[in-house]
Amino acid sequence: MHTFPAPAKLNLFLHVVGRKPDGYHLLQTVFRFIDFSDQLSFDIRTDGLIKLHTPLSGVPEDNDLCVRAAKLLKQETRTDQGVDIFLHKQIPMGGGLGGGSSDAATTLLALNHLWKLSLHKDRLLELGLQLGADVPVFIFGHNAFAEGIGEQLAVIELPAAWYMVLVPPVQVSTAEIFASKELTRNTLPIKIPPFSVWQGHNDLEAVVCQRYPEVARCLEWLKRLEHTTIARMSGSGSCVFAEFATEAEAQIALAQVPADMTGFMAQGLDRHPMHAFAEQ
Fold first, then answer.
1. How far is CA 20 from CA 29, 104, 185, in A?
2. What is the rounded CA–CA span in Å between residue 218 and residue 261?
3. Known catalytic residues?
4. What's the half-sphere exposure (Cβ side, CA atoms, 13 Å) at 86?
């Protein structure tokens, strides 16, 4: 049995700068990995079967991103190998932290290694994009400035930081928010470099907060904290976060979280913990 991490991400800002003819939205965002992860364990099979032993409630096995990733990789390489997959889920679903996308990326990276397929990183990125717009950044392996639908990635160096993340008791549908008539899609594009993540915003935030009062309440609480440099929603929600320069400041914030709110503290990472596997 081989176990690998699938870390969460935060969108330090998320700008919607346009829309393609096919309906996909054009974005600019900064992805940051954090030290808060799902765990995936793999046991190689010789009979070619792909089996998920820890199905998620409400998610049919064939729709699970880990299973889809394994099947896509098997189809791409025509390997006769199979795998037993065990997912320990910690990242909240529907939270804007990229849990499903990260699980898919870790599956691609791990099985490329365990099945000894030797697919190049560029091909893994292409396969990841077939599974979802957020999957490539987890294969890319670095904190990144992203454009397009999120697949055009450039390495970005970010200062050390700690994060307080609140998890409102709702799951937000990404498709619903992007389809909203209230969503503005005309934020002026920024150029890299230079820019500051602290000057950005999340264009989806106002729409989500209007529809989900629980998200708005958590975000307002974070914005009242001292010493925070950013207080924003991640992705299309529901999770919201505040950034701190030091662990001590984040711990003080965590200790103040009201009893009816749920949250956790995590350190910002410089790169994906499986970065070395992507470079093989």
1. 17, 25, 11
2. 8
3. 9, 134
4. 8
Write out the two tokens for 137.
């950044």
pLDDT in tens, 247-259: 999 999 999 999 9
Q: Please state, in angstroms and rounded to a whole number, the distance separating the CA atoms of residues 230 and 198.
A: 6
**Which tokens hold the place of 225?**
């904290």
CB-based contact 240:218 (threshold 8 Å): yes
Burial 256-271 (b: 16+ CB within 10 A, else e): ebeeebebbbbebbee
pLDDT in tens, 166-212: 999 998 888 888 888 788 777 888 876 666 777 789 999 999 999 99
Give the pair of three-digit tokens for residue 192.
């890299």
